[in-house]
Amino acid sequence: MIKKRNGVAKLAAVAAASALVLTACATTAEESTPSESSGGSSGGDSTTQEEVTISLARFFGDCDDTTEGVTDVNQATSECEVIQILTNAFNAEDNGVTVEKLGGQAWGDYYTQLGTTFSGGTPPDVAVMHQHRLPDYVTRGLLTPVGDLLTAEGVDFNDYTAPALGAVTYEGDYYGVPFDIHASLWHVNVDLYEAAGLTDSSGMPIMPTSAADLISQCNAIENATGKQYFAHDWFEYGVGARLFLGLVWQQGGELSDGVTATADTPEGAEALRLLNEIATECSNPEQGYTDSQASFLNGDVAVLHNGTWVVDQYNRDAPFTYMATDVPSVYGGNGAWGDSHMWVMPAQADADPAKQAAALKFMAYLYEHVGDWAVGTGHIAPRTSVIESASYNEAPQRGNYSGTASKARMVPAVPGWAGAWDALAEELNATWVAGKSQSQALKDAEARMNEALAN
Amino acid sequence: MSSLEIQSNSRRIRPKQLRSIIFLSFLSFAAAVWMIPLIWMFSLSLSSNEALKSDTTSILPVDLTFENLLGVLEGGQTGQWLFNSVVVTGLTTLGTLLFAAMAGFAFARIPFAGKKVVYPLVLAGLMVPREAMFVPLFLMFAEAELHNTYEALILPRVALPLGVFIMTQFMAAIPSEIEEAARVDGASRWGVFWRIMLPMSAPALTALGIFTYILTWNDFLWPLVSATQREMFTITTGLASLQGNFAQATELGSLMARGVFASLPLIVLFLIFQKHLVRGISLGSGNK
Amino acid sequence: MASLYNVSKGRKGGGLASREARSSNLAGWGFLAPFLAIYAALLVYPIFQAISMGFYDLDLLVISDRTWIGFDNYVRMFWGTEMAWTLENMADWRIAGLFLLIPIGLAIKSKKLGFVEGLVLAVLVVSIFGVAMGFAPSADGRWFDSQFWLSFGNTVLFVLLSTPLIVGFGLLLALALNRPGKWTGVLRTLFFAPFVLSVSVLTLIWAFMLNPQLGLVGTLFESLGLEPISWLTSPIWAMPAVVIATLWWTVGFNIVLFLAGLQDIDKSLYEAAEIDGAGRWGRFRFITIPGLSRTTLLVTVLQVIASFQIFGQVYIMTRGGPNGATRVSIQHIYESGFRDLELGYASAMSVFLFLVMVFFSVVQFRMVRSRD
After folding, report:
1. Whether ipTM exceeds 0.95
2. C142 contacts on A by Cβ (under 8 Å)
3. Which of C315, C339, C345, C349 has the most A C-beta neighbours within 10 Å, making it the best mutation to test the interface with A?
4. CB atoms within 10 A of CB A156
5. CA C64 to chain centre
6. Is residue C90 part of a domain?
7. Is A442 in the B-facing interface, judged by CB distances under 8 Å?
8. How far is it, in rounded angstroms, from Cα A16 to Cα A10?
9. Which pLDDT tens digit goes with each residue over C35-53?
């Protein structure tokens, strides 16, 4: 029996030891947390006021190694660097606010992480958000309306373009600061167009003006050059669905009336028909994002349907004459998929007025620097004054797709849209990848979209 | 040739050795083919991002460069992240091994009331989809304000039903005569556990230790939502945070370099410990 | 021999016997305590919470705002509008399923399965394949959740495909690698190495390798004069591609467990058998296989459980496509909870998956136990 107690004592000792080790390590970790912001604020802050620290959640990646201490935004070469340098510069200013970035997550995991911070009751002070996600948060009362608050900080909401303002508006209130519009573009290999004789007198490619025109251009270029006419990501990121959406809009159709989804419509059927024709006659539906881009940059494709975020990259890397242009209107009307990055202010359970004021200051600062963002990334600036400015237009290619600023439309602002969109993309993909019947796909898409929107 | 079994009957040496050599050669060839994806990953990490934008089909590096690997070392707070991973994973593994071995010993070797009820309950824990109870766990730690600490990363992983299952199965297989002999000699239960069962379970412990280490090292979803401050990232979430949009189209070499970097410590670890998986000594007479 | 389920109540006699029983109980619970304490707090408690969440209409973002809806989530999972029972619905799968009655019958006969248990199993088979699978929405109706049964079916398919392959390969490789020596140690490391990769690196490698335009496999096909398959966009080949990638990634786990199990087989048995004149195959059949039975049960149960919970690599490689051909249950659960923000519904589906896994594990355990 004595030996038994000995054993139990040893057990207890081990357990206690483990607990001690754990707490020791935890304390070390907490102590090693730097007290300065992780935004790399350079010194020289002889703050006369109390320094307020706010938390910022964003995707775009983490590039502190290349931006540590950098405050000149002209040195930026990527989305991450632009926003990080802007944050650095803000922190370097003597404004009493320090912005601390929370785990800069990759694109895919951002909303998982953001969602859990809301569940846990400690959302960040400022967060980036896509327009298509805004309704989910606004309808749950999770975001603070910032219209009047920001106007007091000098933000002029009337300077925003209509699509940009629409992106942050919900039932009359403004819920965020638009940072950009990013939209579908057609990236053109002008040399291939020229080889097929499809350029005008100034060397600009002639874009198709009707569905039939598109197919004939496709044949012309393929006959003249032997190269594939069209490429885009046919199955990875729902790019096919974006073009579908644009084509539906161009015919005057809609995907939703704000409450239910309407995919199984004559406009939808025609858009899907055209897409499948392009897929079989003019493209390779087995290509995803990376390979379609690779093909384009290798000069094997005349038109790549991608977005605004690659303009600077293609401009740098394309070994041929490159032009970025609006998605052509082939059905008479205008329409191209667009989304928007915006900065929002989550509603805090115990609102600290100092933090809120600091957050608003930062959001106003970002409003002032949308031009830097647009020039540095290729996204379309959301403010008219910036679009019309010289510096913006001097950036490569911007003049060629300035029309998209007004043609781009956001997806319907309906809560639950993310699930509806994924269902639509999957059903559309099924037609050109798995040979599903187009009419059946549209029926199923509409049903599944409504399933998603209803719950 | 010293590693091959030598027959006492010298007339039978050559065919058996020959068979062994052929067999090992075949196995080595299979291993080489098996390694192709990893070799490719390594060679991509040594290729420049620029060159990879146009050609990814070569098994040898295109445009050989070390900038990707160096970039990982300089990037972000890689040192801190590596430290976090080592600490968290190390402590979790030690804790898991100890707790699982103790619990396994109890289930396999000690008759006690309630065992029949508790054991299935423990096994049931294996079958719970992690994504399901992830949010309640998150909320618990949020309420205790324990996020962004080492405890939050270690504690949920330390009670591993998988570990208990493995240890129970293996400990039950150890012949009881050895234990009985020790008890007769007056050893306490703890003594039997510490001095006999643990050493005899070396292969199982090694296996479990390796698994726990790797699974904890590569754990992504939980550290993602629990450790949101940069200094608390583990190497996996940290390296993931460096990724920009559509990274595989623009910086494939860097991505692969990060993968190499995160996996190398684990491969080294396995290489060192795997010899314990094959026990040189026999267990003695008697079977389960 | 200490059997797993040997519970000695120990209160047969007085005095010494009961003191020993008490000390046994104390020891047992004492050794169990550290594990159990953390397990109860951090695993069991959240599980019960998750179960209870399944009865609510619960929103991920606003956890406090919940409505009790009883079994509505479950109805939504399983049922639909305008449901009708037909004989022909999924006839081929149902007939195939009914063939399961044959092995069940054989198992009862050879005493592998107790009579009562066998009967229960048979009744279950008939109710599932004969009756339950006959239900489907008629022409005007729809499933409430069109993805639920689809993803469950894909999951079952994955389990059936992957389990024999990954367990079998694990066993083969373990047998091959079960010899001491430095070079074998290196080989062991090589076969195990893929297991150390994180899921994001794994999927990156394989998605690229399988890409017909950008990958090595495509190049291989071309060099053989064949048309490269676009694996991940083919409704037929996407699932096999995921199985192959998963096998490459995880077979190391099974190899290690089998190696550890092979150690426990008494070497003297082999020597004795060889002296008795048993050939290699005989030794394998009568010593190795029975000797590995406990480990094989372990590996198979774990493999089935792991396959039911497959998620990461499928999600990243195919997003569940093409046309939902590779959407598995956990992906559906994850999307419902984190994208569609329906935590209650996601929890209910998790409970269902959990019960399925429990069922399969119980069947496997009972089959082995009866054999003892």
Report:
1. no
2. 447
3. C339
4. 11
5. 34
6. yes
7. no
8. 10
9. 999 999 988 888 888 899 9
